[in-house]
Every structure is written in C-alpha cells, then in structure tokens.
Amino acid sequence: MDIYYKVVGSGYPIVCLHGNGEDHHIFDEMIHELKGYQMILIDSRYHGKSIKQGELSYQQMMKDVLNVIDELKIEAYDLIGFSDGGIVSLLLGMNDVRIQNMIVIGTNTKPQMIKPMYRFFDYLQMLCLLPFCLYHPQARRTFQLIKLMETEPFIEYKDLEKIKIPVLVLAGENDMIKEVDTMNIKKHLIYSVVKIIDNANHFLLRDYFNVTIKEIKLFLNTCHKET
Predict the structure, then answer these.
(1) Is the whole model's pTM more than 0.90, yes or no?
(2) Mean per-residue pLDDT pooled into runs of 10, the chain (227 residues)
(3) Measured between alpha carbons, how far is 196 from 46 in angstroms, rounded to an integer?
(4) CA 33, CA 9: separation in Å to the nearest integer?
C-alpha cells in the first residue's frame, strides 16, 4: 500500500492524523497515555513514509485514510486530527458513517481563516524556496505543502451539519487559526463542545501536551463510558 500506517495497542480503534509537514510521530507521546485503545497512526500522502506522488489535496488524503480503514476491515472508529489532519477529519466526518467520535485540534475551514501574520510567513517561505525547487525534491515538496494550506480547504459551515457524532473542538488561545472559525465550526457541529486552551499556541500536542491530553482523555472516557 502507498500510504504508511502503524498500528499500536489493542482495543477500540482511534485513527490519528497529523498536521502539515509532520508525520505520525507527533502522536508518540499520546499513545502512551491512551492505553486500552488501538491507535492507528497514518502518514499522510507526501509526508513521512507515505508516497510522494499523485494528487495533493485534502480530498485525496481523505480517500487515502478510507483505503487504510478498508484494508484493516474496521467497522467503527474514532478520529483525532491535528491541523491539516483536523481538516481531513471533518471531510471524513461528512463521508464515513463508521466514525463514532471525533477530536479536531487547531482546524480551519478556509485558508483565509489562518491569521494574516502566518499567511504572510507562508508566502515568504514559498518565495525563499522557489530557487531550490528547481533541483531539490524536498524543497519542492515543502513548497507544495505550504501551497496546499494557502489554497485549501473550502468547507462550508452548513456542510458540517452533516456530522452527527460527538466532536471535541480544541484550539489554543493564541492559535494561528482565527477564533471566529473555531467557534463557527463548533456552532455547526450538532453534537460538539469547544475548549480553548489558555495562553496556548497552535501546537497543542507539542507545547501544551499535558493540558491537551487531559481534555482528550476526558472526552474519550465520556464517549466510551459504559451505560
């Protein structure tokens, strides 16, 4: 299979989707905290050990995840998606009835919902990478991945109403994503709760892990509590 994935542990399956320019190792610390679950860690297309060819889009990444789920013959699962992985999670939530619960972290619905300062930095990076793209494959991939963030996604808020499962929406108080987008995502997800982490930036799984994992565990424990 062209898409690399790693299965850790046993129990109820949770699919984990990383952000732009990362790989499945962003969840290394989390897998030690979420005992009793089967963690499925996926490297998105053009990332990590996955294929570096084909269409680069969030829709294609969604299809890649569905292929992994089908290959593993999973009938029901939860999702944890960070940043770009959160975008893919929202798309999956609108298309796959096997998802039971979802956590999205630092997720945006449109490129313009990234704060202007960060968008300026992205364009500056792309400009600096241009001369190297002629002969350096890694520079070309980095350019393509940054361009992806600046041209996609385009998720309409009303379409989020198709997601009829419990969703935890996490973001940092000083996130690179505009808070209005985070709150609108929450507003249009029928069964959702939002948690803004005080004084935190975008990288909740890296820089604010302890408080973030506490919220994640509380949500999962509530969703999977035996009645």
Answers:
(1) yes
(2) 94 98 96 95 97 96 98 97 98 97 98 98 96 93 97 98 97 98 97 97 97 97 81
(3) 30
(4) 11
Q: What tokens were used for 47?
A: 């990332």
Backbone φ and ψ of 40, nearest 5°: -110, 105
Q: How many Cβ atoms are within 10 Å of 136's Cβ, its own excluded?
A: 13
Q: Which residues of 189-225 are buried (b: 16+ CB within 10 A; e: fewer)?
A: beebebbebeebbbbbbeebeeebbebbeebbeebee
How far apart CA 102 and CA 95 sit, in angstroms, is: 13
Return phi, psi of residue 118, to 5°: -75, -35
The Cα 101–Cα 133 span in angstroms is: 40
**What Cα–Cα distance (Å) separates residue 186 from each residue in 39, 58, 96, 155?**
25, 20, 19, 13
